[in-house]
């Protein structure tokens, strides 16, 4: 019903605009009622229903539905006491449009009466066999008559009379007048000034659609793009999931242009813009491949990790996808899989004289229904040329289709890449050599060894040569020099630092022995019942490690922790650093002890060599 009203109104306005000749012009008034729902008088509604002939009980039921409503105002967020209105109907009530139609019958009767009295004429249509004076649909009104003062005054009189009895008021700022092209400018100015209603505007709408469609059709229907863009911008900040976006596009966005498409044929350029907006919203505002498709999109410099993760799975899709030739306009000769041969399905021969991005369409005759045999024989080797010439060509001019070649029905399912990945892994394992299998067995033995996980991880990293040695950091351009800082003679590789560097081995062994001796001395003092001990040493690194309160994660950390636990059992214990010259006697006693093979403890007597120090 709405579509019919729009069609009739548009044709009537078009007739008005098309009248170029004649002494009498036509005009149309698009009336916009101000607060139409709130102003309707209940007494007027009751009178109209009685005049039409409704049963008294029915009228009472309708008035009861309308008049028993109550409202409450929110002031500073606090609801106030309820009050009952004396007129108006509720907006959104499914009964309200029908009540408006009933009330508009009163205005219809006034117009029909004036038409019978030849006080207004209306607009002729159907070669002058039919005249239209008005179109009503709920609170949307359109009036048609001749652009003369007499008819205009009569129409204003009818409208004023309707306003007085119904309570309705015309919104003159939103109402507009349409004049035929043969109406002179002075008449237009006079008629518009009489009622204070503005002249026509190309942006005026009737029932939500353009009342006039000029040459620039995209401009007239730009409101559709604006509505779609507004909706999408609002949803963009809600971080909707892909499923929700699909629902919103199908239910909300696709419904916006549908109303206009029931009446008007939308321009192709507008539809392309609309499609671009929808595609942009669906794929995340075209962030990642605005000028290509998913299969050919490249990883940008500022791509998110999830996008990089998606693209990592794309390579598996490319292995299973294959092009089915139809119009051959989408497939690239040298980079897309379209040949019916195994392995790559991409031509390996050819001089590429057609260009790197040439389409398969270039291998056909101009009508696209036959292969260009001389060109194919010239470019490709004999084997690939025969494969191409055997491919059938579709005459339907349908777009090329991507298929999944590993399925019998060529359809892609969620299981398809899973099965393909399994096949590829099985093939890769079957082609692995005996050496690789032997290496796998060795790694298995390593991980099953009864060692701390950190030690096994260190061994694995050392075998893989991924320890942060000077040489590895030099190769990655982190350091400028790969020389070992201990021996200053060879590059610091994994082999060098673990086995070949004599300086490193000496340092590690000496450090370990010093820490071990410190633990022996501390435990010996506790066994003797000493409560206060001072431990002195010439290794500043060892002294520093013992005095640190935090946990030591080094290779010798366990021994250091044991000594620190022993020190807590004493009343006072201090570990101090002294230079070797300041601890000369203790150093020489320790040096002389290297020549003593037995375990000796001197408590009351000093060794003989002590007297010579």
From TrEMBL:
It holds the Pfam family RVT_1. PROSITE patterns: RT_POL. SUPFAM superfamilies: DNA/RNA polymerases. Residues 1-211 form the Reverse transcriptase domain. InterPro entries: DNA/RNA_pol_sf, RNase_H-like_dom_plant, RNaseH_domain, RNaseH_sf, RT_dom, RVT-Znf. Gene3D superfamilies: Ribonuclease H-like superfamily/Ribonuclease H. GO terms for molecular function: nucleic acid binding; RNA-DNA hybrid ribonuclease activity. PANTHER family: REVERSE TRANSCRIPTASE DOMAIN-CONTAINING PROTEIN (PTHR33116:SF86), REVERSE TRANSCRIPTASE ZINC-BINDING DOMAIN-CONTAINING PROTEIN-RELATED-RELATED (PTHR33116). This is Reverse transcriptase domain-containing protein. It comes from Juglans regia.
